Amino acid sequence: MLPLIILSAAAFVAAIAIATVVIGTYNRLVSSRQIAGNGFSQIEVQLKRRYDLIPGLVETVGSYLSHERETLQSVIEARGAAQSGLSNVSANLNDPAVVGSWAASESALGGAIGRLAMVMEAYPELKANETIASLMEELTSTENRIAFARQAYNDTATTFNIRRQSFPTVAFAGVIGFGDDLTLLNFEHQPEIHQAPKIDLTPATVG
């Protein structure tokens, strides 16, 4: 009888120990994922600002370059696709397909802005326009903030992934709702997302 009681007590203690480990692990993973999610929300803030700046830039440039309608329209369409994709990403950061699709749309937007910048370089009157200069300066600043926020998110996502993949967590992470890593935002082959279009914004001098 006594050995049975001892075994029962040992099993109870073991169960408590296991539960404590699982609960502690769950809480750490929740915390890490929340921190990473907050990091991505900072990217969203800057991207939305980027999206807000683009129509004003296109409208102002269009008043000078109405004949470049195709170039201007491509920027607006790319902006719409990127903006639409962003709304689906924050809830699916553990889905590489969703994140990859959005990254591709951001790359397309960066490329469209880059082509517009190349067109603008051929028109000195655009470089002298204070509104355009101000918009481009704000866009450059926003791009820099996006790059900073992206790196911060990647750092927190990496922390989550390491915790999820570490033993013994990896053995039961899927059971408690953490079966997938967070997808890092790597844009090495899509530099447009963090590099502002290069254009000379120095006002032209007369004489």
Topology of helices and strands:
Elements: H1 2-62, H2 69-89, H3 96-120, H4 124-127, H5 130-165, H6 169-172
Helix pairs in contact: 1-2, 1-5, 2-3
Main location: membrane
Family: Belongs to the LemA family.
Keywords: Membrane, Transmembrane, Transmembrane helix
What do you see in this structure?
With 207 residues, this protein is an all-alpha fold. It is built from six helices and no strands. The C terminus is likely disordered. Helix 1 packs antiparallel against helix 2 and helix 2 packs antiparallel against helix 3. The chain has one domain: LemA-like domain (de novo design (two linked rop proteins)), CATH 1.20.1440.
Please state roughly what percent of the residues sit in beta strands, choosing from under 5%, 5-15%, 15-25%, 25-35%, 35-45% or over 45%: under 5%
Calculate Rg over CA atoms.
Answer: 25 Å
Approximate helicity band: over 70%
Number of strands: 0
Label the overall shape.
rod-shaped
Q: State the end-to-end distance.
A: 107 Å
Low-confidence stretches: 188-207
